Amino acid sequence: MAEQVTGPATGPQVVIEVWSDLGCPWCYVGKHRLREAIGQRPDADRFAIRMRSFELNPAAPHEPETIEKAFIRAHGGTAEHFLRAEHQIQAIAHEEGLAFTLDRLSANTFDLHRVVQYANGQGLGFEFFSSVQDGFFAGGLNPYEPDALAGVAESVGLDGRRVREILTSNEYADRVRADRHEGLELGVAGVPFVVLDRRVAAPGAQKVAVYGQLLERVAGPIRDERAS
User: Where does the signal sequence lie (predicted)?
Assistant: First the structure.
């Protein structure tokens, strides 16, 4: 099952698969751009977004640390380099009306992806992931706390008790690994990576207009109802 984006249906469903990871700021921005592009179409409910798991750093520690420390370990450089990169993407996010705090934590996201897989099965994968990521970048949510994830799950219509069970088990681990493996086979070198109708791929956080053009390629142009 996949989450539906509401709007008047005018054609067959188009599945949009999004390989993404929680702490990737470009995934955060790209997700909102994609959603905006879909929302601009009168046939928005034709498009079903399915979240696919892709850990950017499978070796990341499970104990949360500052994003500055994680950045320097992964990319090298200094705190100045880190702040320059963060301020750049923060400015882009703010221009698009998105909250973006620099006071975030970083840790292994494998467990979160396991919950996303459960949410996908309930048709709420995109809604759950999006809510967690939005809260994370706004600075109001610690996604590495089981109670926090359970709370978000309940807010989108999932079973919080079930989420807690998953987090204390190894359920859905194979699906997370399978998603990453499939992404690598498709050429994913980084995220976000969007595949539309298994016909068109879009690496990186594209502009709203570019996503709109890709939607048109797979679903046809938006018909002007005013035309006679």
Answer: none
Bridge partners of 194, per DSSP, are 18, 202
Give the pLDDT confidence of 99-141 residue by residue, as tens digits. Answer: 999 999 999 999 999 999 999 999 999 999 999 999 999 999 9
At 110, which helix (H) or strand (E)? helix 110-121
Q: How far is C-alpha 196 from the geometric centre of its chain's CA atoms?
A: 15
Query: Could you give the number of structural domains in the chain?
Result: 1
Tokens 């109001």 -> residue: 140
CB 20 within 8 Å of CB 197: no
Residues 123, 174: Cα–Cα separation, whole Å: 19
Which residue in this structure is represented by tokens 């995109």?
126
Query: Do 92 and 29 form a contact (C-beta atoms < 8 A)?
Result: yes
Whether the Cβ atoms of residue 129 and residue 187 lie closer than 8 Å to each other: no
In terms of phi and psi (left: phi > 0; alpha: psi -120 to 50; beta: otherwise), the region of 145 is beta
pLDDT band at 67; cut points 50, 70, 90: very high
Q: Looking up tokens 């950017």, which residue turns up?
A: 56
In a domain, 227, yes or no: no
- Using DSSP's 3-state secondary structure scheme, residue 156 falls into coil
Q: Letter for the amino acid at 2? A: A
- Closest among 29, 35, 63 to 191, alpha carbons compared: 29
For the CA atoms of 157, 108, 89, 2, the dihedral, rounded to the nearest 10 degrees, stands at -30
* CATH number (domain holding residue 73): 3.40.30.10
Q: To which H or E segment does residue 47 belong?
A: strand 47-53
Structural domain boundaries, residue 141: 3-219
- Beta carbons of 36 and 208 less than 8 angstroms apart: yes
